[in-house]
Amino acid sequence: MENVKTLYVTGYKSFEIGVFQDNDPKIIVIKNVLKREIMGFLDAGLEWVLVSGNLGTEIWAAEVVAELKNDYPELKLGVIYPFKEFGSNWNEKNQTNLEKIERLADFVDSVSHQPYQSPAQLKMHTRFLLEHTGASLLIYDQEYPGKTEYFLKDATLFSEQYPYEIRLITMDDLQNSMDW
């Protein structure tokens, strides 16, 4: 594992994997696997974890980072939204989740300082994340397509030109984890 200082964590949104309640047992499995993977990066020098605030994997990753800070106080969490007012049209429960991770974060900003205007803002966001991280940790399985596929394609192209690690946690990995 390369000495990665900044890691982007993303993956399935909660609804893409059938998680609709905060007490779904799948969340415990996912968080335990995320914790184990992030700890591996920490042991190799990780300093920052970035998320974009998407529901599901990214919210759970932010919660895991907050827990890990108890043992790794040097670990920092950044929330980098693609555009200003990200999530403002979400329901109250989901907006509360965003507010929660903002409170946990050491840094919060958006790549575009304008409200959503076009898909170009999402492309700029992806480019920013790739250029400002050394690796990505994705809960994603190509046998179960989801929106993360777009990021994975861009990250794969980026990794062909620059040293960049892409670590995938697949459905098999989750099912085979000791926590299942």
From TrEMBL:
Gene3D superfamilies: 3.40.50.450. SUPFAM superfamilies: MCP/YpsA-like. InterPro entries: YspA (IPR010697). Pfam families: YpsA. Belongs to the UPF0398 family. This is UPF0398 protein A5889_000535. The lineage of its organism: Bacteria, Bacillati, Bacillota, Bacilli, Lactobacillales.
